[in-house]
Design goal:
The chain is of the alpha+beta class. The strands form 6 sheets. The protein has a 5-stranded antiparallel beta sheet. It has a 3-stranded mixed beta sheet with strand order 13-12-17, covered by helices on one side. The protein starts with a strand and ends in a 5-residue tail after the last helix. The protein is elongated and about 110 Å long. Helix content is 46%, strand content 14%. It contains 12 helices and 17 strands. The chain has helices at 62-66, 103-117, 185-188, 191-195, 264-277, 297-316, 324-331, 335-346, 368-425, 434-456, 462-501, 507-566, and strands at residues 3-7, 26-29, 38-42, 48-52, 56-61, 139-140, 143-144, 154-158, 163-164, 167-168, 200-204, 209-214, 217-220, 229-239, 244-253, 260-263, 359-360. α9 runs parallel beside α12 (507-566), α10 packs antiparallel against α12 (507-566) and α11 (462-501) packs antiparallel against α12 (507-566).
């Protein structure tokens, strides 16, 4: 029996062995077990390759799809065969083809590991230890005391349903089932556990994340103390008596008096913590790693520009900019304090389902039909934007290549031809033609100089646009997962409403699911609103910069041609 999966997001292959797929397409999988987030399968044409696990929804085996009876055992369904009472008794069949058909997948996994191990930022220094979180001043048993030392300033937030003290909620005859596809982003992010009421944790006042109602819908509450941060002075440093080399960058935040020195791997560690901490926030991607040539001047300059864009988006985000781990990254200068903060961040309990406990929403609930319409519209928008940014990036890259190669050569060829003509004219040995000969020679020099102008120009106007497009392509790659979490929450709401209509679930339990879905919806729409704000800001500024540079460029060319024209005025 073949294991089927439905594609929920388009995926365009970028490497050998990957399979391009489109939304709605049905794939046949080799195995349900992924390796480093990849599944192997084939499409209806028999083409075989790898696809991201989070881009597909596993449907089950052919027998489960083609029949519906109490003996069937559908693998991935919210309601198992035999009814809700059988949920806990589902037995999973053994994985298909795990021993004989996973060679390509394992090879892709090995290639990934080799690339990762060959990166420029291995974890090998003294703060990469595995010790547990140390007790810190002001803490008792993991709970924070208030400023007076009179007990904890945290409060417990839970979404559990059931027994509370001496009270017991009435048990319903049905519950909203869990998605058995453990590869689903909705499951892995903790969104499902939160919606189903399984989140429980301590939330400090400082950990609260507020969503407010703005003129265009839910928005993140602005950071009352905005700041920025510069990244300067990339410096090559060594350790282990010169055996290990790396590049450090000086970070200077405007809200602290002291700059800090950070390596790329510190950025990489921070990104991993933030991506884990905020499942419905698009954490900007870092510039890509590079195994070779990482000490070359061009690469260091390009990486610094990418980090500047990344930092600008971090400090502009109302939530990310205030996050404890980000502030620790920006401000900590003491080695011991750095290690303590690192361990604390890695032991953070407010991740996964518990993250959603920190979100405070406007009092009026959202209309879920309106939310669904907005989310669908944004999904269409991001797909169109992704296609257009890829096209623009390819066009600009080709245009830059032509300017630096073909245009430069063509202008220089014209210049050399003019100079050859002037040299021929000089053979007439007539004194009255010397001015003309000089003018033609100068025109040739002018065209050779214009060729150099074309060669130098892309770094001033086209490269910055490509840097911006690269950053936004990272954001666009994040949003399918963000949308998937919100869509999963809406699905649970619809299931609960159906159970209420059928008399299988009490209204109070369904209302709890609605409330928790409202929290996820508010956060998702707030993140979408923030994305649109920074998109308008960034593209406006970049297009202004591009056109200003183009005007300066052509003025410089015009000035050179006018200078050549003057050579003919007094002949």
């Amino acid at each position: 029996m073949a294991l089927r999966a439905k594609v929920i997001y388009d995926f365009l292959s970028e490497n050998q062995g990957e399979l391009s797929v489109q939304e709605g397409e049905i794939l046949t999988l080799v195995s349900e077990q992924d390796v480093e987030g990849w599944l192997e399968g084939s499409n209806s044409r028999g083409v075989r390759g790898l696809v991201p696990a989070t881009y597909v929804e596993i449907l089950g085996h052919d027998a489960a799809l083609n029949s519906y009876n109490t003996s069937a055992e559908p693998r991935y369904s919210n309601v198992p065969a035999g009814g809700f009472a059988q949920l806990e008794n589902i037995s999973k069949p053994p994985p298909v083809g795990l021993t004989s058909n996973t060679a390509p997948l394992q090879q892709h996994h090995n290639n990934y590991k080799q690339h990762s191990q060959g990166s420029d930022d291995d974890w090998d220094d003294d703060w990469d230890d595995s010790s547990t979180v140390a007790d810190e001043p002001g803490t008792v048993g993991g709970r924070y005391r208030d400023s007076e030392g009179n007990g904890t300033s945290t409060y417990r937030v839970t979404t559990h349903t059931g027994q509370r003290g001496n009270a017991m909620q009435t048990k319903s005859s049905a519950t909203v089932g869990k998605n058995l596809n453990r590869f689903s982003t909705f499951v892995k992010s903790g969104g499902e556990a939160f919606v189903l009421g399984e989140a429980s944790g301590f939330v400090k006042d400082g950990d609260k994340i507020c969503v407010v109602m703005g003129p265009y819908g839910p928005e993140w509450q602005e950071n009352p103390y905005p700041f920025s941060c510069t990244i300067d002075d990339p410096t090559k440093q060594t350790k282990f008596k010169g055996m290990k080399s790396y590049i450090s960058y000086k970070l200077t935040p405007t809200h602290t008096p002291n700059p800090v020195s950070r390596r790329y791997k510190h950025f990489d560690w921070l990104y991993a913590r933030l991506a884990e901490r905020f499942p419905v926030i698009s954490v900007p991607h870092l510039p890509e790693k590079q195994a070779t040539g990482r000490f070359e001047e061009d690469f260091i300059s390009k990486r610094r520009k990418g980090l500047i864009w990344w930092m600008n988006h971090m400090t502009s985000h109302p939530v990310l900019s205030k996050c404890d781990v980000f502030q620790h990254f920006l401000t900590c200068t003491d080695e011991k304090a750095w290690k303590q903060g690192k361990r604390k961040a890695e032991k953070d309990e407010l991740v996964g389902a518990n993250f959603f406990l920190t979100i405070s929403t406007p009092p009026a609930p959202l209309d879920f039909q309106e939310v669904e319409s907005k989310i669908d519209g944004f999904k269409t928008f991001t797909k169109r934007m992704e296609d257009s940014t890829m096209q623009l990036n390819a066009t600009i890259n080709e245009f830059a290549r032509k300017q630096m190669g073909g245009f430069k050569k063509e202008y220089q060829k014209v210049g050399m031809s003019f100079k050859a003509l002037s040299q021929a004219f000089e053979m007439d040995q007539q004194t009255y033609s010397s001015g003309l000969n000089h003018g033609i020679s100068f025109t040739g020099d002018a065209y050779e100089a214009i060729g150099e102008y074309f060669y130098e120009q892309p770094s001033k106007d086209l490269d910055p646009i490509m840097d911006l497009l690269a950053l936004y392509q990272g954001h666009l790659a994040n949003f399918p997962d963000v949308i998937h979490v919100q869509k999963g929450a809406l699905t649970k709401v619809k299931e609960s409403q159906k159970h209420v209509e059928e008399g299988k679930m009490d209204r109070a339990q369904a209302n709890g699911i609605n409330d928790r879905c409202n929290i996820i919806s508010c956060a998702t729409l707030a993140e979408i609103q923030h994305f649109h704000h920074i998109r308008v800001r960034d593209f406006k500024a970049q297009m202004q910069h591009y056109l200003q540079q183009q005007i300066t460029f052509y003025k410089k060319i015009t000035g050179k041609l006018e200078e050549a024209l003057e050579k003919y005025d007094n002949l």
